[in-house]
Every structure is written in structure tokens, then in C-alpha cells.
Amino acid sequence: MFDKLPHCLVIGAGGVGVITAYSLFIAGKCIVSIIARSDYDIVKTKGYNINSCDYGNLEGWKPHHCYKSVEAAAMSGEFFDYIIVTTKNIPDGPTPVSRIIEPVIESNLKLCRTSASYRNKVCNIVLIQNGIYIENEIIELLETMNTSSAKVSLISGVQLIASTKVGSANIIHKNTDHLTLGAFDPNDKTAVAYSKKFIEMYKNEGKNYVELDTDAKYTRWKKLLYNATINTTTALTSLDFSRCVQFGPETTEFGIVKPAMQEVIAIAKSEGVIIDEKLIDFFYDITLNLVYKPSMCVDVQKGQLMELEVILGNPIRVAAKNEVKVPHLNIIYNLLLIIQGKIKESRGLLVFDEKTARVVKK
């Protein structure tokens, strides 16, 4: 099935993306390229500095290839067997994921149409991102493209990693990388086969932990127990979760987080996904003593847009469709909508007219 080393393109050179790229690189079973964007000049000349709990202190690491943009990768003439997306998933932002990755998907499909040597290639899109139903946006994109000459598979990646970009080309990685990977559609045999191949490329014994996901829908709802409640609470307070609990022990646990987790379980059940309630205490307890600011908290503090819609908006819309009451999630979501609006205003993505006290541009 594979006549040469697969070529992996990582889109999203933040904390998750760089460790993902390095894990593939050090295993030595594929060619690794990365979209570095703002860090491009530094990475090309000096490489990445990585402080990793899995791999130690690394200075000046460089992937096999580095591109300044997705468009540059698309124009390189390379076929990318795996397009690995580790960017933030922000459909309400200026560049949704489908728009980001469209050029490189199109370049892959063009090679399949025009060159006999690429005719039997599979274009695998790996979404290592938070949220539920994030694949729908990509499916809609593919429906507008000519995919008759190639097979395209969609692969889900759910990662627990605690890795953060703390400066230009500077990564701190605090928790052992645990990646669960599998087909969004468990009946897609091609996606299942290429998920297994990716796992073999990604695995570094004694360093990271990677397993096949046979039920990506369940896995994504399960992780939402953490993201929709603990991650969002830290974003609202701009505190790590340990401080949230210590500063408001009764309120945080029984007034916000655990009731919100119950609501996530109820929405999942309405979609045919059964989550064991024991996982409420599991996620709460493992986070309680980890002095770490989750991704949404970091985004707020950096003035960056949050993954609000895929983490909270989508499940709340599912709840409305299935008539599930979610008062705690609704409060968290609506408060974060205000903060997201504040960030959008600061970044010029909307304009608030103080004379009319109205938003005049979106």
C-alpha cells in the first residue's frame, strides 16, 4: 500500500503542532513538513527550542521541510499523504479550518488528476482539534471539490498533551502526549487503515502513548466533559483550575463544573452516546492539582479568539435540537460570547459605535 515514506504536513505550529511534528520526525517513518507562518524565519535559521517532558530539552530542532504558508506548501509540487490540522478550530473567526486547508487539498487532488504516479494516492485529513462535529465543515468543503480522481479520508485525533507555545519557536510541553486516533466514520475502511498506519508512524515507545480510536464520536463527547466545563471556567476567570476550586470550592465544584458535566452527558445521550458518570469525578480530580492554564484560558490572556463554537456552541445547538435543558452550559456560553466579542473588537474583527451603543461591523 505504501511504496515510499509518507509525507506529513502539519498545519498549526503551536504547542500541539510542534510536538506532533517532532513525534513523527523522531520516529523516522515519514517525511515531516510544517507550516511555521510567523515563526518561519526563526525556524528556517535556528529551529525550534523545545522543553518536553517526553523528549527532554531540544535546541534548534528543524523538520524536514518548513513552509511560510499553506499556499506555499500547495505550490511546492509535493503530495501530502497526511494533512494534519492542529490549528485552533474557530468557525466564527476570519479563517475557518476549511478555508485554511483548502489550497493544499486542491493541490493534492490536482496531482491525482494529472499524474499517473499519484492516481492511487489517498489524501488523509487528520483533525487533531477540540470539539464535536468538526468534520462536517470539511465534508461540506469536499462536496464542492472534484474528488473523483482521489480517495479522501477523514481522521479524528483527540490529544491530551499540555503543550504550549510560550514565545517565537519556543515550546514547553508538560504532560506525556496521549493521542487517540481513528476514522470519524468507523465504517470507512480506508480511513481506518490509514489511521493504523499513522499510529505506527507516530509511536515512540516509552515517550508517548497512541491508540486506535474505534469510536471517535464517543471519544470527542468524552473529552467535551473537560473542555466544555473546566476549560471554559478557567477562561471565564483567567485562572488555572486549581485556583478556581480553592477560591470558590463549593461554588466551582457543585454550582458550576459538575452540573455542567451532567448536562454534557445528557446531550451526548440524546445523540446515542453513553458516557459513564464516573468520568465526572475522573476529569475533575485529575485537573484539581495540576497548576496549568488550559487552552481557552491562555487564549483569553493572549487576546486570541477561543474555540468557543466547537466546544460549547455545537453541543448547545444539539441540545436545543434534541430538547435537552442545559442552563449551566448556556450561562457559561453566553458569558464567553461577551468575552469573545471583546477579543474580536480588540483585533478589529468587529466595531462598536459608542455614539449609538451598537455593533456596527461584524
**Secondary structure tally: strands:** 14
Q: If you average the pLDDT, what whole number results? A: 94
**CATH superfamily caption of the largest domain:** NAD(P)-binding Rossmann-like Domain
Radius of gyration: 20 Å
Q: Could you say what the CATH architecture of the largest domain is?
A: 3-Layer(aba) Sandwich
> Would you tell me the structural class of the helices and strands?
alpha/beta
Order of helices and strands: EHEHEEEHEHEHEEEEHEHHHHHHHEE
Molecular shape:
globular
Helix proportion of residues, in percent? 40-55%
CATH topology assignment of the largest domain = Rossmann fold
Strand content: 15-25%
State the name of the first-level CATH class of the largest domain: Alpha Beta
Plain-language structure description:
This protein is α/β, with parallel strands linked by helices. The chain has two domains: 7-214, Rossmann fold (3-Layer(aba) Sandwich), CATH 3.40.50; 218-346, N-(1-d-carboxylethyl)-l-norvaline Dehydrogenase, domain 2. Helix content is 47%, strand content 20%. It contains 13 helices and 14 strands. Strands 5-2-1-6-7-8-11-12 form an eight-stranded mixed β-sheet, with helices on both faces. Helix 5 (135-143) links the parallel strand 7 and strand 8 (151-160). Helix 7 packs antiparallel against helix 9, helix 7 (216-237) crosses helix 10 (278-288) and helix 7 (216-237) crosses helix 13 (327-346). The radius of gyration is 20 Å and the shape is globular.
